[in-house]
Each structure stands twice: as C-alpha cells, then as structure tokens.
Amino acid sequence: MMNYFQNRMTGDPHTRFLLFCSLFMWLAGCSSAKPVATKTADFVVWTADLRSDTLKNSYRIVLKTPDNSITGLCILKKKGGEWHGTLINEMSAKAFDFIITDEKCELLNVISLMDKWYIRKTVAADLHFLFNVDNPKASFQKRLKRFRQQGMKVVNYRKKQILMIPDGAVQLVNRRHKLQYELRKMMEIDPDKVIL
After folding, report:
1. What kind and span of H or E run contains 23?
2. How far is residue 59's CA from residue 183's CA, in Å, rounded to a whole number?
C-alpha cells in the first residue's frame, strides 16, 4: 500500500495535487465543529432565587413544538419529598397536574388533547429531568455534563439540554422530539404585605 502512494507521489504533479487535496478534505471531515466550552460542575440550575423548597413557586411557561406554541403558568410546591405541580394555559384551563419524585414524574388529570401515552411519557420524562437536574438521588445524575458556554450555564443529558439564560429563564430543549420548554420565575406577592 505504501509503495502505491510513493509511486503516485513521484509521478504526475496533478495526481499528487489531487491526492493531497483528497487527504486534506478527509482530515477536515474528521475534525469537530463543536463550539468551545469549558467543563465545570460547580453550579446548580435551581438556585434559591428560582425555586423555594418551602413556598409556592410560580413560573410563566412557554412550550414550543415544531407546529405550535403554548403559553401559560406552572405552579410548583414541595410536599414532603415530592414536588407537586400544575400546568395551566393562558385561558385558565388546567392542562395537567404532576407529581415528581426522585425516580419518576407522573402526570394526572391530563386534558384529552394531550392524553396519549407517548405525549404523557415524553412530557413526564422532560419534567422529571428538568426539576431533578440538581437532585443527587436522581438516576441520571452521574451521566450529566455541566459546562459554561457563551455566558450560559448548560447541562446535557442524552438528547436533552438545559440552558440557564442570563436574563433569568430556564430552558429545556428535547432535541429528540423537537420540544422546548422555557420557564421564567414570577415574583410572589404576599397578600398580607400589599398596601392598598
């Protein structure tokens, strides 16, 4: 094999040029075009500013699919070792309730439009990952890759990615099913402290 290339390299200059270009293109095709990222493991997604273990948490949520976009509210509260939540659309219609434990997420009272096994399975897995990303007891914890990229904190797990956007939003992207969830914390108002 080596003799073949040596014979070709000493021959016609056009052949040498084509072989060189072919080798260069092959090597260029093997290179990675991933953006530069620094690997760290020193941050959490759910800081005290974004989620409280003792108070009710309210988020403005945008759920984007390839064909549509849904906006509404996500209300979340910790009860014992479980997170209980509700997703409500802009028209105040409940889409579903959910309970998240260390092991899984279960959807309850799902509206008929979403009450299909594959939709329930995907949304439950996404919510489980999103709300348990900092839970050391979660089964996927050892397979997470945390790093900083272009001013954002990023957590990767299989075909899912959580982005901490600098403006305070938490975004989950499910690349496999082309879904995107974006949550923004809403300021909680204590009715006892409101001055009329």
Report:
1. helix 13-30
2. 6
d(CA 175, CA 160): 6
Structure tokens, 175: 């690349």
Gyration radius from the chain CA atoms: 24
In order of 76, 102, 139, the CA distances from 106 in angstroms are 14, 11, 16
Q: Which two tokens stand for residue 28?
A: 């260029």
- How much is the pLDDT for 68? 86
3-state secondary structure of 20: helix
Distance CA 154, CA 158 (A): 13
Q: Which helix (H) or strand (E) holds 106?
A: strand 105-108
Burial of 101 (0-12, 13-18, 19+ CB in 10 A): middle
| pTM higher than the cut 0.90 | no
Residue reference for tokens 């990023």: 154
Which uninterrupted H or E stretch holds 2? helix 2-10
Neighbouring C-beta atoms of residue 35, cutoff 10 Å: 7
pLDDT digits (tens, 9 = 90+) for 82-113: 999 999 988 889 999 999 999 999 999 999 98
| Dihedrals phi, psi of 62, to nearest 5 degrees | -125, 125
Question: What are the structure tokens assigned to 82, written together?
Answer: 């479980």
pLDDT tens-digit profile of 113-166?
A: 889 999 999 999 999 999 999 999 888 988 999 999 988 999 999 999 999 998
